[in-house]
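Give me structure tokens for this 291-residue protein.
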Amino acid sequence: MERTLVVGVDGSPESRAAADWAAREAVRRDMRLHVVHAWSWQPLALPVVQDHDTEAGRAQEVLEETRAELTRRHPRLSLTAEVVPDAPVPALLRAAKDAEMLVLGSRGHGALAGFLLGSYGQQLIAAAECPVVSVRARHGIAVPGSDEGEVVVGQQGGVADSADVLRFAFETAASRKAPLRAVRAWNLPPVYGYSPGSMWIADRFGGLEPFEKAALEQALEPWRTRYPEVDVVAHVELGGAGHVLLSAASDAGLLVVGRQVRESGLGTRIGSTAHAVLHHSACPVAVVPHR
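Here you go.
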């Protein structure tokens, strides 16, 4: 089966920037790019003339304009496109069900407010079964450096916990011939959280920081072996995960984080770390679901 990357477009400058980023990524990875424009007829309760065929024609124009632009800029691209008669979230979730990646656009919103992801984006990231990449755009242009610089990936937990996230990050770095920075953030546990067992394990490694470094190296070992061509830097730092990752990725080409797949009483969530970097990272962010 042909490997597929899906991008959602709606005619906005942000979605055009996301489509262009997705096209470059598809060419690098030798994937087919599938462009999806979700549109459904929803007459407004207003005294204005509304015509189904006219609105449907506009939706098709958005798709054809995107297709023409991508074909012109990326002649080697394998491209398909469709208008899906449904709301954006269910339409894109269905389109990306068997895809390897879903790409969305987000709007630059200033240095303090960060990037505006939007409710659709948050719902898609929380529910998608594949990695979702949020591409930053200002004035319809992908943020400079979005294809350059190292790939930064956040690692947490043990070997099995971070396998899907590291796989995506290593594959991306290999396709770009870019270095990879693997980041593990850690905090001092509360004094009442110490236990004889945990302290004995930490003492074996000479303290908490060496223990965290050993855990990171253990998680990286199988992927270093599988991708020997990727230059890897292991980065362990004391601090909150969101803050440490944003600092490490200040000049990165892509930031990769995980999202644990689990249901809460309020439905699916993207997690505090993913939420922080999605709204404040200057580079594109990939959120990879994992169990």
